[in-house]
Backbone:
């Protein structure tokens, strides 16, 4: 019986550690939105770095909101910068999510936030 209890604790301990990771354990550094005009094509670049400050390897989903001059959200997208891979504690994943958005006039501010955490 004692062996069964110890086995159960060892089996579920990693799950408990992963459950402790939350969006606040991730940081976004060096977020740099830019609009590039190349002839008749306007492309967006929304680059940054996602840092895992959690004690366990996990992945984070981020959301980028683009707002107009009045502060109203005119476009919003969510993505997993590391895809279905976990980010090791302390590691950084670079991202550029500009391809998810279409440029439109009136874009004036950009916000990025971590909205979900998962262990794959």
Residues:
């Amino acid at each position: 019986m004692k062996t069964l209890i110890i086995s159960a604790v060892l089996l579920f301990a990693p799950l408990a550690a992963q459950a402790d990771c939350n969006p606040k354990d991730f940081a976004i550094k060096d977020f740099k939105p830019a609009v590039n005009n190349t002839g008749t094509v306007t492309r967006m670049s929304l680059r940054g770095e996602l840092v895992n400050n959690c004690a366990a390897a996990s992945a984070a989903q981020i959301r980028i909101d683009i707002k107009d001059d009045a502060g109203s959200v005119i476009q919003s997208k969510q993505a997993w910068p590391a895809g279905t891979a976990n980010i090791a504690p302390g590691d950084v994943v670079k991202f550029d999510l500009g391809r998810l958005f279409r440029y439109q006039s009136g874009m004036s501010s950009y916000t990025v936030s971590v909205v979900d955490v998962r262990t794959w």
